[in-house]
Design goal:
- The chain is of the alpha+beta class.
- It contains 16 helices and 22 strands.
- It is about 35% helix and about 20% strand.
- It has a 7-stranded mixed sheet with strand order 16-17-15-14-20-21-22, sandwiched between helices. Strands 3-2-1-6-13-12 form a 6-stranded mixed sheet, sandwiched between helices. A 3-stranded antiparallel sheet has the order 4-5-8.
- InterPro entries: ATPase_NBD, Carb_kinase_FGGY, FGGY_C, FGGY_Carb_Kinase, FGGY_N.
Amino acid sequence: MSVWIGIDLGTQSVRALAVAGDGRVLGTGSRPLTSHRDGPRHEQDPEQWWRELAAATREALRDVPATERVEGVAVDATSGTVLLTDPSGRPLTPALMYDDRRADASRANEAGALVWERLGYRRMQPNWALPKLLWLLRDAPAGARLAHQSDFVNRRLVGREVATDLSNALKTGVDLIEERWPAEVFDALGVPSGLLPEVVRPGARLGEVCAAAAGETGIPEGTPVVAGTTDGCAAQLGAGAQRVGSWNSVLGTTLVLKGVTKELIDDPLGVVYSHRAPDGSWLPGGASSTGAGALTRDLPGRDLAELSERAAARPPSSAVTYPLVSRGERFPFAAPDAETFTLGEPADDVERYAAILLGAAFVERLCFDYLDLLGAPVDGEIILTGGATRSAYWTQLRADVLGRPVTLRENAEPALGMAVLAGGDPARMIRTRAVIDPSGADLSEPYLAFVTELERRGWLTATAAEHARERSAP
């Protein structure tokens, strides 16, 4: 029997899965990671990544029979996390994590404006990798090398310098259309050409596990090491959203949508930007500032499972809350001054709970309406993942609001996505738990009232609001 290893190198922990060809998880391993935070500073020790990754893979493989063949391994990592190494791969700096905001993006945006515009995201943020690279280079010794989080551990696995993947390189400024570093931008910024790794698509073979790494990780020497992705793209792969028109909607503390298109989507607002898929197609996505985080803020200490049961026994809520977790919206529109509001007057905590869930479902529908406006295909499978899927009431409500069946997976974690990318067959490894059909409830009227309110407040453009109305017409 063949086995694939998927590794999710996150912020709080590293998690490894040993997965059989039919999707059965044969072994798991997890180890905590330590962060050092101080205001805008967020650093980690790269050496700890390797130590804990090795411990996690040994644990994942502990009960896998030695007769089973490990066919491949792939690693995902947090987006925008970088460090500098010496030519041998030893760290010269701590790792600046995905949300470290000490850098200034103005130089990167001035030099790369034309490229960023063409790629669709239009402007880099201070926590993106390229601004952080420029910040690190102020005191860098000659011969320093850039490494993304996954590059650092992949080099340890292979035992030599490795290419980076297009997914992790996105926030470092790689040209995803031409699949190369834009030399004119980096020359203007004074970045030495020898500092940057080569770039390959996710899924490309980087090398094989070397003898030293095999001894530390338990992964057999000679196992193919495959270029991975960011953690967000890994979760999309694990959910099985890999066909054009299919979408993975992740609803936890906040809402994130990721899908698949043949062509690069051009968004004039820049709230949707795309990664490159292993097969060369595009993975557009956007992240809203709304989600389940509003529940813990607005209903502190309440038993949410009990509220869900009680809400399910009542008629649909007549109130709806726009459930921003923090001030400002990022998707499906950009409105830095947006704030939470409620239409109607909830009578008790059950109605307050239902109003928040309904508002989150309305934002999700509006995201699809906006994607359709941009020309993205949205007629494929919709796969729901994230903590919100634990509520059967909320899942049914989302199917009703979308007016579409929604799919739930048995397992959709990023590490599974990496096992698939390492060479597993997604048709066999990704298992469906349930498909939830709409109940027939018509929620178009309250949805359009919600859209109208967003437009009235000046946050949603008239064009986007009108398109939502057109898509809701009988």
